[in-house]
Amino acid sequence: MIDEREPIHAIAAFFNAIVAGQLDEVTAMYRRSATTYVFVEGPRWSTLGYDQIAAGWRAYLESPIRITGWQWGEGPVVEVWNDGAIVAGLLDLDVRIGGKPRALRFRASFVLRRDGSGRWRMIHEHLSQPMTDPYGIGDWLTP
User: In what helix (H) or strand (E) does residue 32 lie, and over which residues does it extend?
Assistant: First the structure.
């Protein structure tokens, strides 16, 4: 039986490496594959392939954006099976953008697969924020 805390610990190590600015540890979290696919929270729709993901992290960690802290605001919810796992929840980030502090909340989901060495690697990542009234009718759950 797989301990569901293992993928949560892997995601925690990933975000701790981001806070510490450890590029090698950040990029080591991803499966080295041309099909590893992420939906980033930034100005692009997606990034496909390990090499492009690593290049994106290199640029991000050299940018004026600094993630200084993180925590789960809701969750995480975890589902684990054989050599795979999904970790999802609301992620609260403390950031400094150009030296100015800011708090951001994202929807976050990670699909992980355990590799041959037993290490959890991301094969898909998605961080996003809700759009303001994308259909032009408000929230259909609110009367």
Answer: none
Per-residue pLDDT of the chain (143 residues; tens, 9 = 90+): 678 899 999 999 999 999 999 999 999 999 999 999 999 877 889 999 999 999 999 999 999 999 999 999 999 999 999 999 999 999 999 999 999 999 999 999 999 999 999 999 999 999 999 888 888 888 888 76
Task: Indicate the residue type of 114.
Answer: R
CA–CA gap between residue 21 and residue 141 (Å, rounded): 41
For residue 103, list its beta bridge partners. 94
The answer to whether residues 122 and 50 touch, using CB atoms and an 8 Å cutoff, is: no
Indicate yes or no: pTM above 0.90: yes
Query: Which residues, 6+ apart, have CB-to-CB distance to 2 below 8 Å?
Result: 80, 81, 82, 85
Q: How is residue 15 written in tokens?
A: 């975000």
Decide: 57 and 27 in contact? Cβ < 8 Å. yes
Q: How far apart are CA 54 and CA 31, in angstroms?
A: 11
Rounded to an integer, what distance in angstroms lies between the CA atom of residue 36 and that of residue 29?
A: 11
